[in-house]
Amino acid sequence: MDIAMEAGLDLVEIQPNAQPPVCKILDYGRFKYQSQKKASEARKKQKTVEIKEIKMRPNIDTHDYDVKMRAMLRFFDEGDKVKVTLRFRGREMAHQDLGMNLLNKVREETAEIAKCESAPRLEGRQMVMILAPIK
Predict the structure, then answer these.
(1) What angle do CA 55, 61, 65 make, to 5 degrees?
(2) What is the largest CA-CA distance in the chain?
(3) Pairing of strands 81-87, 126-133
(4) 114 by DSSP, 3-state: which?
(5) Which of 21, 33, 120, 131 is most buried, with most CB under 10 Å away?
(6) What secondary structure, in 3-state letters, does 66-98 show?
(7) How far is CA 55 from its chain centroid?
(8) pTM of the model as a whole
(9) Using one digit for the tens of pLDDT, what is the confidence trace for 24-70?
(10) Pairing of strands 10-15, 22-26
């Protein structure tokens, strides 16, 4: 502690549980500032993966389907996951096989660039599937 006082620095305990305890003489304010800078740099560099949602209906037209697929490919290029939601309305619930076929078609068309993270499953009146880009 005397050496730290003479140098005008702080005595920081690094490992209190060691025998004997490990201490370091340093400027604590500067140390804290540098650790905050490192943490902020790490936060800047990390990529947050977003989940984008594409909504469809079982009897979607071919052009509408193509537009949705282009949007999905753009999302995969940006590195985002895509949640494909297929909403059933009214009597469409009686033809869930059409919805399953549509989602399987989407999965097959995106097989080269995306993997199926969760298979198509029915949640109430909508069928949901999550696709993630292959790195």
Answers:
(1) 50
(2) 84
(3) antiparallel
(4) strand
(5) 131
(6) HHHHHHHHHHHHCCCEEEEEEECCHHHHHHHHH
(7) 19
(8) 0.65
(9) 888 889 989 999 999 999 888 887 778 999 999 999 999 999 999 99
(10) antiparallel
